[in-house]
Amino acid sequence: MAIPRYKLRKYIVSNALAWIIGIIWLIPFIGVLMASIRPYEEIVSGWWHLHPFTITLKNYINAFNHPMFPISQGLKNSLIIAIPSTIVPLIVAALAAYAFARYSFPIRHYLFAFIVFLMALPQQMTVVPLYFLLRNLHMLNTFRGLITVHSAWGLAWIIFFMRNYFSMLPTDVEEAARIDGATDFQIFYKIVLPMALPGLISAAILQFTWVWSDFFLALVFLQNPEKYVATQRLPLLRGQYFVDWGILTAASIMVMVVPLLVYALFQKYYISGMIGWSTEK
Amino acid sequence: MRRPKSLTPLFFLLPALVLMIPFVIYPVFKTIYLSFFLDGKFVGLENYKEVLLSPDIVNLDRFPTKSPPWGALIHNIVWIAIHLPATVFLGLGIALLLRREEVKGSSIVKSIIFLGMVIPMIVGGLIIRFLFEEGAGVIPAIFKLLGIERLAITWTAYPETALFAAILGSIWIWTGFSMLMYSAGLASIPKDYYEAALIDGANKFQIFKNVTWPLLKPITVVVVAMTLLWDLKIFDVVYVATGGGPGGASMVLALKMWDYFARALNYNYAAVVAVLLTALTLIPALWLIRRRE
């Protein structure tokens, strides 16, 4: 076997560089994992000291059943909020996106440009009036209040994303169905939606993980500690006299495992959603 | 494109309008309205003057000669000045490296780097705090090993280092985005372009400069615009990593807005900061829209 020397050198350099970068990016996660499965005394002067090495689930149990801000309740609340906050905007945005993709109507162009503008908007721009609006509607501190805000907020990007997706679909099946006498809504419901399923899955996955990961809107609209979502509880778990990294890292893992699982199970949809959402016009 | 005889498109749009008008569009205009009032009285641009001249927003007595706090607006600008080039070039470099045929397991490395984009930002911020903590964290330990005692400290606890801990950590979080976008962009460049360039006798650098980089330009536009938007809106990371402190040394605009809203209970100043933040996000947003038309 005669591998040219320069090729061997290139092989080693590229692989070493790639894997060093990979390890640098992984180290923070290794640290979190190590701190979460070991007692506080072992990691307080650095989790990389491996003697002694005691494995314990105590941190996870303590975070899960925390006396003030149990993560268990937070995970439950996050789920109660994230599921409807995914389904509602997905349906509503798919309808609107179809109108933008298939019909011409007055001010269509301006309306769509306005929706693109809303995508770039910081959430800070809406929360002060929303706070008072929800208070007047008796929806402050309620799950349905936060679900409504998340649903409305998610619409802009899902409309943008689904309009792009619908625009790529061929229209001849729709035309054929129309000749056969199908109504506009039947065409949308029975033909377009099934064809757009991969796009809908991508949108659902991204919306779900973004709502799950949201911190700011929950911070503004949920002020009752029992109603706090998982991300909201995380910063509150530090110990009283010192920062208890064991409990914080264990809780972090429990909070991030949900989006990580979604990513692992639906990687293809996640990535295509991520790329499609930000590049296609 | 169908020209409807009826109100069909309105029927499709109606649910979206019902949700967006009260819960997104009305609050945007109401925030602008609130920014011109104080205690229920119209004050014109007085609030803007007050906020913009406050050392919490721009502090030219300290910037750039002294250590932070420099004011939230300057912190966001410093953030962009470091984070934008770092993530764009790191992402591009990593995408180019991992595309090489000889790299084994490149998809695993890619997934690892992308993890920062998948986890909630609040977790990302907590990990940054952990990384920069003296004793428990890796980074002070490395500086201690190198004998640089000045940086072997809890970075988030000192005004000189808090902002930079958050910025450096956010590079770790966000590089996965630009890497993913550039990887997709590189994969879409046809192979024969490179073959043609090789036949013409171009060297590697020339190929990159004249073939790869120009063809990646639409991707670069998106990456730069999205990164600018992310840097301007940064909130969770700072909230949990430093809380904007110590003494405002790592305060950013989005967190300052929260500060006025939830701590000072000054809704009008909160509205002013929100409007300023939105005005800044319009720059990359409009640039992105125009570049794509």
UniProtKB/TrEMBL annotation, chain A:
<feature type="transmembrane region" description="Helical">
    <location>
        <begin position="78"/>
        <end position="98"/>
    </location>
</feature>
<keyword id="KW-0813">Transport</keyword>
<feature type="domain" description="ABC transmembrane type-1">
    <location>
        <begin position="75"/>
        <end position="266"/>
    </location>
</feature>
<dbReference type="GO" id="GO:0055085">
    <property type="term" value="P:transmembrane transport"/>
</dbReference>
<dbReference type="InterPro" id="IPR000515">
    <property type="entry name" value="MetI-like"/>
</dbReference>
<feature type="transmembrane region" description="Helical">
    <location>
        <begin position="12"/>
        <end position="37"/>
    </location>
</feature>
<keyword id="KW-1003">Cell membrane</keyword>
<keyword id="KW-0812">Transmembrane</keyword>
<protein>
    <submittedName>
        <fullName>Carbohydrate ABC transporter permease</fullName>
    </submittedName>
</protein>
<feature type="transmembrane region" description="Helical">
    <location>
        <begin position="245"/>
        <end position="266"/>
    </location>
</feature>
<dbReference type="InterPro" id="IPR035906">
    <property type="entry name" value="MetI-like_sf"/>
</dbReference>
<feature type="transmembrane region" description="Helical">
    <location>
        <begin position="110"/>
        <end position="134"/>
    </location>
</feature>
<feature type="transmembrane region" description="Helical">
    <location>
        <begin position="187"/>
        <end position="212"/>
    </location>
</feature>
<feature type="transmembrane region" description="Helical">
    <location>
        <begin position="146"/>
        <end position="166"/>
    </location>
</feature>
<keyword id="KW-0472">Membrane</keyword>
<dbReference type="Pfam" id="PF00528">
    <property type="entry name" value="BPD_transp_1"/>
</dbReference>
<keyword id="KW-1133">Transmembrane helix</keyword>
<dbReference type="GO" id="GO:0005886">
    <property type="term" value="C:plasma membrane"/>
</dbReference>
<comment type="similarity">
    <text>Belongs to the binding-protein-dependent transport system permease family.</text>
</comment>
